[in-house]
Amino acid sequence: MIKNNWFWFIQFCCWLFIAINSLIYSPLYDGNTMDKAIYILAYLIIGFTCAYFYCSVVERQNPDEISTFQFLLYPLVGSCLIGLFFTFVDYLLGGFEIPNSFLYVSMSYLENIWFVIPCFFFYHLFRFTVIYQDRKQRTLIAENLLEISELENLKKQLNPHFLFNALNSIKALTLFDGKQARESIIQLSDLLRLSLNLGELQRATLSEELKLAKNYLALEKLRFDNRLTYEFNIQPDLDNVLIMPMSLNTMLENAVKHGIGQLKTGGKIIISANTDKNIVTIVVENSGFYDPKPKSDQGGIGLENLQKRLALQFGKNASFTITNSNNMVISTIKMPF
To answer: Which of 10-19, 46-55, 139-148, 205-214 has the lowest mean pLDDT?
Structure first.
């Protein structure tokens, strides 16, 4: 802070104002121009120099270790010291003579203290503001790093969950259809490549998410056969809309595992997306029933992570809801783009 040019420019202006203001109330005000100039220059040099050394001393103090008493004491001590110097200058330049009444000298000394003490409090206020802004900035940086770290951890939890479901699909296929199993391996390869790429991004285009969703559903279709049907209802011209990666796929995994997979006759999945102003809404509807308090402790991790990721990335500007309606489970994400 010692090197802050604006701070020292303001300090210079303050001490110049103090010097001129002191001259107005000094007997030297009626003197010649040279005496006035010397008076102002002396006040300016003393005030500016003392302020610099005062700031240097205070800067060495840890702000966390300065008590309220010290905060009040330091400006008072500094003001008394500079007031003493100014009173001595007044005497040297003929502002008053010795012997003179003690009361007059004391009043002159107190006036000098009164003139300079605002500068010291201004310095401490300025220092407090700088320290506060610096701490606030460091706190924001730390919070951002924490959020980024938590987002990465959540993504790492999503990818194995997706891989586990896909491998189960292949495992089921190998028992009765080798050809389809080989096709599903190729699809799995594409799925993994795309999901890994999306997992490295903070935002992904809706077209990339839809491509992943179509590949995923095609793979699950091989496992469920006629028990799974699906359709896409996507508003035109949304290909380049940016959304949180792996969000749609998380809802689809939940729809297949806890919806279609729990029904003997299977069911249907409907994926829709539309925008309103700067909000994109993605809806996944699937046959089944959503129980907010499942009997088993298994499952639900993907949706829980999805909600955490939305909160970390968008705060209150995004939402995730899941409800039941007409024998269908409706999962809805709303997020800014």
So the answer is: 139-148
User: Domains in the chain, please, with CATH?
Assistant: 5-139 (no CATH), 176-336 (3.30.565.10)
* Strand, coil or helix: 209: helix
pTM for the predicted model, two decimal places: 0.52
Integer Cα distance of 260 and 230 in angstroms: 11
Residue 69: CB atoms within 10 Å:
8
Q: Name the burial class of residue 15, with classes exposed (0-12), middle (13-18) and buried (19+) by CB atoms within 10 angstroms of its CB.
A: buried
- pLDDT for 262-280, tens place per residue? 898 889 999 999 998 889 9
* Better-scored residue on pLDDT, 301 or 156: 301
Query: What are the residues whose beta carbons fall under 8 Å from the beta carbon of 302, sequence distance 6 or more?
Result: 158, 161, 250, 253, 254
Instruction: Report the half-sphere exposure of 292 (CA within 13 A, side-chain side).
Output: 6
Residue 41 CB: number of other CB atoms within 10 A?
Answer: 12
**Cα–Cα distance measured from residue 163 to residue 119, given in angstroms and rounded to the nearest whole number:** 66
Dihedrals phi, psi of 82, to nearest 5 degrees: -70, -35
DSSP state of 272: E
* Length of the chain counted residue by residue: 337
CA 170 – CA 190 distance, rounded (Å): 14
Look at strands 328-336 and 319-325 and give their pairing: antiparallel
Q: How confident is the model at residue 282 (pLDDT cuts 50, 70, 90)?
A: very high
Name the residue with tokens 């951002």.
Answer: 144
Question: For residue 274, how far is the Cα from the chain centroid?
Answer: 29
Asked if 275 and 237 count as a contact pair (C-beta separation under 8 A), the reply is: no
Whether the Cβ atoms of residue 161 and residue 147 lie closer than 8 Å to each other: no
* DSSP labels, 279-337: EEEEEEEEES---SS-SSSSS-HHHHHHHHHHHHHHGGG-EEEEEEETTEEEEEEEEE-
